[in-house]
Design goal:
mainly beta, 3-stranded antiparallel beta sheet, 13 strands, rod-shaped
Length: 134
């Protein structure tokens, strides 16, 4: 029977007997993505990291983007894998009329695509783009 333990620093779901050492227990800390197992003989918790996020940023210079066209550049986020989810960090000075997207295009590589829908060519200022992948 699962037991849910709540406290200010973490949330853990236990299977087994949280106070006993007669069977293996595990807990998942949903705030960190860490998985813990108990040693069935000693009851000692062992940490196994199963998840986490990777972050990175880079100053990119797209130069001039003609109206109705797409430009793309890449930057490194160590630990990123194709099909990871992305929380992008866009520069606050991104020009009006630009529409952007980010995705992991290869291992450790995030691609930034900008589509210019402004009605005229836009010379994009060199700016810092970032991403957290998970």
């Amino acid at each position: 029977m699962p037991v849910l333990e709540l406290n200010p620093t973490d949330v853990r779901v236990f299977y087994g007997t949280p106070t006993g050492i007669d069977e293996r227990q595990f807990a998942i800390d949903i705030t960190t993505g860490n998985l813990y197992f108990t040693d069935p003989l000693t009851g000692t918790w062992t940490l196994i990291t199963i998840g986490g996020a990777a972050s990175g940023s880079s100053t990119l210079d797209f130069g001039s983007i003609d109206d109705g066209t797409v430009a793309e550049l890449t930057f490194t986020v160590t630990g990123a894998a194709v099909n990871d989810s992305i929380a992008p960090s866009w520069p606050s000075t991104l020009d009006t009329g630009l529409v952007g997207m980010m995705f992991v295009s290869a291992a450790d590589t995030v691609t930034v695509r900008l589509l210019n829908m402004s009605g005229a060519a836009v010379d994009v200022a060199s700016s810092t783009f970032g991403a957290t992948v998970f």
